[in-house]
């Protein structure tokens, strides 16, 4: 019995030491995560319950900011703008990526490589630089698009200076810029599909469209699910494009939720209200992600 | 194993603590100076700063710069953390926020001790820098707007140049001729204090009895609609993205402050001059805003900071840094300051007009100005692009603005 107790002590001591070693290796990352992620989130939640202009100490308001924000026409407008951006950009971006990736997955390796590079170049370019170029392309009267329209006898829409087109123009630019990244993800998914499925389909008499619809697409659903979740999250965080292309205008027609947070905080110096919107955005993205996660059982096929 | 890990951690901690060392005490006072310097700006200010350093060898000036937009974000975060620079730049549009929130040091005692007479500055701008009992900032320049004209385009299109400005009818006739000549006529689409400037020049009072902004009045609506119609009629370009049609010789007239005059006179080979806005009303006031310097209320070196501030806002600096470069209107009322701007190599024949207008200048200030101007900018962009009429747009804006100002 004494020998057994001694062996248990030694066992516990060795495991405690191993835990300490593991903790010491995890510590730098944990400290960074707590200091740079957890604490700022907690601070944001606290500040959302106050009125604070940075120049004086925060003043406690309780849930007043939350009550005001849900009846604020500006908040509802920017929420609508962001929802439109998400609904327009995510499906278009994914469908285009699938279409182009299937084309680039053919037998002509050099041509595939060339197009993959071409489509990926915008992804690695600075969003600000790309937005500045597109701003010139979209310009009324002097922009390239305006010239193309006029050369075929049409009048170009006012891409950046009309409320009807401003957000759509941001969507077009964003889809163009992010296409390469989505293509790479789809290509990776396509190359993970075992050729035996296609062989079996051919033997069963499936044509090209059947093979795409009944083999490729179902096998791609895990990739598409990942792309959908990530695209929705990033579309709710759109900022650079709206700031550079349209400055959120005309009016507030292309102001996204994050740009609205920036305006509230850094222009109007209302950090309490800005943090409130940030918390609401966080909750919204979390909710949408949870809904998508729950729905994956219905359409995502994880069969190997 | 645990002992080895513990030993490693302790060694690392010791090494980190050895790497941090105290700065040797050099006996000099370090003054931090924070401003929205860009490449050309710093060169202009550096001369004044170097002269100050020579005159005060016991003071070391540490220059910190940021772009215009980043400057205000950084200043706010510095104010929160109590790390604002000893001397920092300020503008009349935002000064009251910082004064009212205790970021700036009151200069009353310092000015009294040195017998510094504030009447050496134009009084129109000084109200922006006061808390009602004492000044918190001193100005280094002022700014107001005039129409810069490319006389070569006017000559080409057969339009007479009128140095004293045009009546509204004369102006519209000129616009038509310029458009027929293949050019854009004018660019005046202001969405900030320059908008107030146009309205006050036309004789409108923009503040109601409560001191709140009121744009929903007939004259303001009519003038705003006139500017929107200039776009509709093809005389004014819709906002072009950072492409300066005036600089590329496609636009006959544009609304500018003195700094932009010097930018164009440096880069354009054209006959340029300034004229007042077209109007049928005499005696309207111009709106003047400007830049200033302030001392941080938490500075550990108020006397040294005051010496630097006096240098940066002196009449001598106004002459050499502001007037001579046509960077702005010198804020000091002495003759040398006025002449420095008129005789600047970047001046246009009637640059004197900028100074003459200050005699009847005013400011438009009201509660929650920054937040209201965000809404104003958005609504004016809809009006200028023709999405809404001036009447509808300004009515909607006024309702929103009233809610904000009544907070």
CATH class of the largest domain in chain A: Mainly Alpha
Query: Greatest chain-chain interface?
Result: A-B, 33 and 32 residues
CATH topology of the largest domain in chain B: D-Maltodextrin-Binding Protein, domain 2
State the major sheet of chain A.
2 strands, antiparallel
What is the helix/strand order of chain A?
HEEHHHHHHHHHHH
- Separate helix tally of chain B: 17
In percent, how much strand structure appears in the residues of chain A?
A: under 5%
- How many distinct helices of chain A? 12
Silhouette of chain A: flat
Span between termini of chain A: 52 Å
Output mean pLDDT of chain A: 91
Indicate the percent of residues in helices of chain B: 40-55%
- Rounded to the nearest angstrom, the distance between the terminal CA atoms of chain B is 64 Å
CATH architectural name of the largest domain in chain A:
Orthogonal Bundle
Strand line-up of the largest beta sheet of chain B: 2-1-3-10-4
Report the portion of residues of chain B in β strands.
5-15%
Physical arrangement of strands within the biggest beta sheet of chain A? 1-2
């Amino acid at each position: 019995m004494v020998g057994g107790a001694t062996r248990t002590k030694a066992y516990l001591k060795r495991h405690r030491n191993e835990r300490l070693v593991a903790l010491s290796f995890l510590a730098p990352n944990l400290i960074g995560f707590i200091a740079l992620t957890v604490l700022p989130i907690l601070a944001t939640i606290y500040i959302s319950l106050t009125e604070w202009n940075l120049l004086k100490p925060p003043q406690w308001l309780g849930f007043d900011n939350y009550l005001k924000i849900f009846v604020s026409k500006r908040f509802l407008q920017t929420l609508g703008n962001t929802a439109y951006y998400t609904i327009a950009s995510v499906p278009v971006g994914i469908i285009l990526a699938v279409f182009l990736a299937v084309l680039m997955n053919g037998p002509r390796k050099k041509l595939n490589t060339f197009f993959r590079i071409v489509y990926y170049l915008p992804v690695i370019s600075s969003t600000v630089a790309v937005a500045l170029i597109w701003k010139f392309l979209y310009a009324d009267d002097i922009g390239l698009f305006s010239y193309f329209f006029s050369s075929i006898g049409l009048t170009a829409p006012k891409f950046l200076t009309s409320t009807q087109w401003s957000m759509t123009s941001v969507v077009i630019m964003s889809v163009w810029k992010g296409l390469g990244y989505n293509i790479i993800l789809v290509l990776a998914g396509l190359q993970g599909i075992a050729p035996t499925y296609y062989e079996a389909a051919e033997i069963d008499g499936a044509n090209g469209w059947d093979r795409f619809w009944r083999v490729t697409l179902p096998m791609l659903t895990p990739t598409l699910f990942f792309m959908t979740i990530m695209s929705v999250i990033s579309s709710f965080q759109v900022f650079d494009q709206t700031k550079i292309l349209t400055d959120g205008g005309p009016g507030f027609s292309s102001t996204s939720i994050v740009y609205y947070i920036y305006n509230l905080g850094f222009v109007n110096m209302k950090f309490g209200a800005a943090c409130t919107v940030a918390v609401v955005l966080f909750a919204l993205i979390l909710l949408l992600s949870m809904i998508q996660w729950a729905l994956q059982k219905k359409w995502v096929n994880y069969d190997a | 194993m645990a002992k080895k890990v513990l030993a490693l951690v302790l060694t690392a901690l010791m090494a980190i603590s050895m790497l941090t060392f105290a700065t040797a005490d050099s006996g000099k006072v370090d003054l931090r100076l924070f401003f929205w310097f860009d490449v050309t700006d710093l060169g202009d200010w550096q001369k004044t700063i170097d002269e100050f350093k020579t005159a005060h060898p016991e003071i070391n000036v540490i220059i910190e710069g940021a772009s215009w937009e980043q400057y205000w974000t950084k200043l706010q975060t510095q104010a929160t953390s109590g790390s604002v620079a000893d001397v920092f730049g300020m503008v009349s549009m935002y000064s009251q926020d910082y004064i009212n929130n205790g970021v700036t040091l009151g200069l009353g005692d310092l000015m009294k001790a040195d017998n510094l007479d504030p009447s050496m500055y134009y009084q129109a701008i000084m109200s922006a820098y006061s808390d009602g009992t004492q000044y918190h900032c001193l100005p280094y320049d002022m700014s107001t707007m005039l129409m810069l004209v490319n006389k070569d385009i006017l000559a080409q299109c057969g339009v007479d140049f009128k140095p004293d400005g045009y009546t509204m009818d004369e102006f519209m006739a000129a616009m038509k001729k310029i458009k027929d000549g293949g050019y854009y006529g004018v660019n005046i689409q202001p969405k900030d204090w320059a908008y107030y400037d146009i309205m006050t020049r036309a004789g409108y009072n923009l503040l109601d009895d409560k001191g709140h902004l009121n744009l929903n009045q007939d004259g303001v609506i009519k003038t705003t609609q006139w500017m929107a119609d200039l776009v509709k009629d093809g005389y004014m370009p819709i906002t072009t993205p950072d492409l300066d049609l005036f600089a590329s010789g496609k636009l006959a007239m544009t609304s500018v402050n003195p700094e932009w005059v010097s930018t164009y006179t440096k880069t354009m080979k054209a006959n340029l001059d300034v004229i007042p806005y077209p109007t049928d009303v005499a005696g309207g006031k111009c709106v003047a805003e400007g830049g200033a310097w302030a001392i941080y209320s938490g500075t550990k070196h108020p006397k040294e900071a005051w010496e630097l501030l006096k240098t940066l806002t002196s009449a001598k600096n106004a002459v050499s840094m502001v007037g001579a470069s046509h960077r702005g209107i010198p804020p000091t009322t002495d003759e040398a300051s006025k002449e420095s701007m008129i005789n600047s190599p970047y001046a246009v024949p009637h640059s004197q007009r900028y100074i003459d207008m200050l005699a009847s200048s005013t400011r438009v200030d009201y509660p929650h100005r920054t937040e209201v101007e965000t809404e104003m900018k958005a609504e004016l962009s809809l009006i200028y692009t023709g999405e809404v009429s001036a009447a509808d747009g300004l009515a909607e804006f006024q309702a929103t603005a009233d809610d904000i100002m009544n907070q």
